[in-house]
Amino acid sequence: MLDTEIKQQLAQYLELMEGDIVLQVSAGKDETSQNILKLVNELASMSSRITVETAALERTPSFCVNRPNENTGITFAGVPLGHEFTSLVMALLQVSGRAPKVEQKIIDQIQGIQDQLHFETYISLSCHNCPDVVQALNIMSVLNPNITHTMIDGAAFKAEVEKKNIMAVPTVYLNGEVFSSGRMSIEEILAKLGIGTDASEFNEKETFDVLVIGAGPAGSSAAIYAVRKGIRTGIVAERFGGQVNDTLAIENIIGTKATEGPKFVASLEEHVKDYPIDVINNQRVVSLTKKELIEIELANGAILKSKTVVLATGARWRNVGVPGEMEFKNKGVAYCPHCDGPLFEGKNVAVIGGGNSGIEAAIDLAGIVKHVTVLEFMPELKADQVLQDRLYSLPNVTVLKNVQTKEITGNHTVNGLTYVDRETGEETHIDLQGVFILIGLVPNTDWLGDTLEKTRIGEIVVDKHGATTIPGVFAAGDCTDSAYKQIIISMGSGATAALGAFDYLIRN
Of 129, 260, 328, 478, which is most buried with the most CB atoms under 10 A? Predict the structure, then answer.
């Protein structure tokens, strides 16, 4: 089941266990059941602290990770390998008694929950966003006996997934009702439960010298460069890492041959936390006002004040803007082929977008789905030629160029797409079960209104120092009018903006 290299790594982690655990298994004669039995028995053979028992559980195949004579509420319905292997390892350690790496404030909030909460998370093993949700909910289950959590592999429980019309992962149910979809941190989960930070906690904060809005590559770089100047520095962001969290393969960070978005974000966060930077996470900024100081208003009503500000709010997936897109989001309309692709196995899907991202998605999906239709607005694809060559070599791909998507259709879920031939005006409808939209990014600058100069598409205009048209306000990364949107360029522009802010401080 586990190869030699993984077993060697696992053995090191199992040595960190602090107490005994029991793996209670409900298995049948199907292949997934047999794989679960192989996995748990292999784990038991590697540590004297692990024992295996047969049990009658809600789902078969599945297994629980418990302490002797104590139900922790953590269940894996499916084989937690792939991206979920880390979730399994963390569950083993935490159930054994090893404390999770969570701030005490968060622990107190979790332990204060009195309601009975039963979470179920539908995942795919290829999803790089799913483990964050699984691990967060597992931690909550370990810390509070009122909370339980089951990870469900959609590939192992296809009938259940289809019955609930789950077409995006991770999808979380709470007490039988849909709770959320998409990547969430433990802080975001608590906020959605109505357990958040009171505005008064922020109102008493001292004035910052530099306050960074956004915690992606640009924001992290800006904060580190600022704090290294010995000045009071803070970061406020909705989620650490931003858009990079949704990126799978990263192979162009010089000095790092290859990494993945979530792994890269974790290293950014670790680096930031090495410095005395006041990190204010899971908070949305709603306005910026230039007075004697620069005032930043949060969605919870709190006001943060700073002498300078660096805007590093990044960008988000661009929408097509056609009927049906929002109605069927996560119900057949998707944006991440790596995460959601396995849910469309054997089905017909479309990819809107002929750039590198769109064509890479089409190639990826072609190995999973029945047929892929690529729709490109322009007369020619924009992707690199090597990607185009690969695409055209695939037998189950159709490429439509010079077409405009008019409508995504469906009932409860997507059932098709209507497009218009831009040369002839002819309308055509194709039957589909999924539509993947990959047409680039749009800057997260709507909240700024007309307070500073932006381009027609909303990018913040900056000079060579990262300065905006408001004195003391700087900007960096994908939210600006930089010519190229790349992680490494964002990091460099974050450093430039921080140094620009420092120069402003010493001159004013």
Answer: 478
